[in-house]
Every structure is written in structure tokens, then in C-alpha cells.
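Q: Given only this backbone (286 positions), what sequence would you predict?
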């Protein structure tokens, strides 16, 4: 296995070096695609990073979205003969030894199989795992971007990531597209990636129930609504539109009113996302 990893950066925090160090020793090359507007490479918080020779900085000085950044990594993997691509978020990391176990598990399961490989996620804000932790390797509906390993040959067969979505849904769309072609997505339930969902900050009580608003900024709010509507049209068997709108639109209207800042900007993003989703609009928000 020749493993290329890519992390898409956007205003990275001080924990970036530690996160990268949790897997850098086990990859052959790590691409850091910086979506932060402007030339931010000199400001990256990477003091005393291990194996700096394995890092390569990429980007074009503006936010091109997640899909375009991942597709740059796909092209790089093809050009330089890597067999597998690992995609990661900037705030995700493995506890000591877990990434080595993950790579070993893939190799033992069959690294050359026509399969998308993923991990279980320990959701830090909830202090619980996404799936029950077991020793099984199970087929799952889809995988998140962070921690997923793709055989590079799949991109020849299935095409590249749908960068027109710009941000939300790129990961699940690829898994759903793969499933239609008989390519499974499997999860190693015993291997945990330390991860968080969205911008969750604080739990609240509402009508006697505990709620945990996903406090996305306006731009991300827009894509969450719009892309779910677009993906429902493409994959009606995979995305329940009523459930999607209930969580990303209707509940969010209430949560913004009660708990979140920048209310007007977020409400406008919700409306714009719904309007453009109905129209089937893709690409970067205008």
C-alpha cells in the first residue's frame, strides 16, 4: 500500500500539529490543501512537526470548496502512483496506536478489494461513539470525509468527488454512487477517530428535552439545506428529504432564534439554501 493523505484546511487552529502527528508517521505523503483565503501557509501552526519531509502544501489562495481540494489529491495520487487515498478533517485525530491498527486492519481485510474503508467515530462533544464499539467490520450506509480510505482505482471506475456540492454531502454522495455500482463501504467498528460534528458548542433544555444545536455559520448553513435537497433528487433511495429538512431547516430556524448569534444572516442562508435547493442550483453560493 502506498498511502497518500489529504487534509483540507480552513482557518486551522493550534491543535493542527498534534492532530497531524497522530497519523503522519504511517502515511507516505500528506497534502495540506489550504482553503483559507489569502496566503496562509507561513502562518500554519506546525511547530516541531514530525516527518516534515512528508508534507506538501497546496492551495490557490481562496476557498475552492472541499470537493475541488479532494479532487486535487485524487489527481496527485494518480500522477505519482499511490494506491490509496486517505481523507481527513483538520480537527480529527487518532489516539496513540489506533491509526497503525487501522492500516493493518485494511491490509488484513484486503487492501486491493473494491471497497471504501472507514472508521468508527468518537464524537468528542457527546463523549460517545457513533456506532457501538465491536470487533466487527460491517457494511455502513455511508462514511464521513474524515478517516476514510479509498482505493485510487475506484476513481477511474466511479469518477471523482462531486465538487459542485462545494461543501456538504460530498462524502455520502460518493458512497451512494459507489453502492449503485456494487462497491461497499465498510466500517471497522473497533477503531475510533476522535472527531466532532459541526460547530456544536453548548447543550440546552427545550420543552423538557436536551438539545444540542449545530451552530454552523451562514455559509455552511446554506449548503446543508441546499445540498440535501439536491441529493434527494439524485438519490431518493438514500436521503429522506422530510427528515433532512426537519433537522437542517425547521429545527434550525428555532435554534437560531433561541440560541445562536448572527440570526439574520443565518435565516437568510436557510431561505437561500431552500430556494436554491428547489431550483437544483449547484456550485459556490453566489
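A: Predicted residues:
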Amino acid at each position: 500500500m502506498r498511502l497518500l493523505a489529504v487534509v483540507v484546511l480552513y482557518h486551522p487552529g493550534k491543535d493542527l500539529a498534534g492532530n497531524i502527528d497522530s497519523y503522519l508517521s504511517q502515511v507516505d505523503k500528506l497534502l495540506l490543501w489550504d482553503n483559507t483565503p489569502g496566503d496562509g501557509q507561513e502562518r500554519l501552526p506546525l511547530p516541531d512537526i514530525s516527518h516534515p519531509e512528508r508534507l506538501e502544501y497546496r492551495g490557490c489562495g481562496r476557498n475552492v470548496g472541499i470537493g475541488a481540494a479532494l479532487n486535487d489529491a485524487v489527481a496527485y495520487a494518480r500522477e505519482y502512483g499511490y494506491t490509496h487515498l486517505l481523507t481527513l478533517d483538520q480537527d480529527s485525530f487518532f489516539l496513540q496506536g489506533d491509526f497503525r491498527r487501522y492500516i493493518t486492519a485494511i491490509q488484513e481485510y484486503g487492501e486491493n478489494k473494491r471497497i471504501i474503508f472507514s472508521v468508527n467515530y468518537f464524537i468528542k462533544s457527546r463523549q460517545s461513539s457513533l456506532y457501538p464499539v465491536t470487533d466487527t467490520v460491517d457494511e455502513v450506509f455511508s462514511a464521513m470525509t474524515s478517516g476514510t480510505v479509498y482505493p485510487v482505482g475506484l476513481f477511474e471506475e466511479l469518477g471523482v468527488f462531486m465538487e459542485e456540492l462545494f461543501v456538504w454531502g460530498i462524502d455520502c454522495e460518493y458512497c451512494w454512487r459507489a453502492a449503485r455500482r456494487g462497491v461497499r463501504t465498510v466500517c471497522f467498528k473497533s477503531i475510533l477517530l476522535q472527531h466532532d460534528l459541526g460547530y456544536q458548542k453548548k447543550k440546552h433544555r427545550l420543552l423538557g428535552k436536551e438539545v444540542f444545536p449545530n451552530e454552523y455559520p451562514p455559509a455552511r448553513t446554506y449548503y446543508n439545506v441546499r445540498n440535501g435537497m439536491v441529493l434527494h433528487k439524485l438519490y431518493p433511495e438514500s436521503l429522506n428529504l422530510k427528515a433532512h429538512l426537519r433537522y437542517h431547516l425547521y429545527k434550525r430556524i428555532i435554534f437560531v432564534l433561541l440560541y445562536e448569534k448572527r440570526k439574520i444572516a443565518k435565516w437568510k442562508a436557510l431561505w437561500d439554501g431552500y430556494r436554491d435547493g428547489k431550483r437544483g442550483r449547484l456550485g459556490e453560493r453566489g
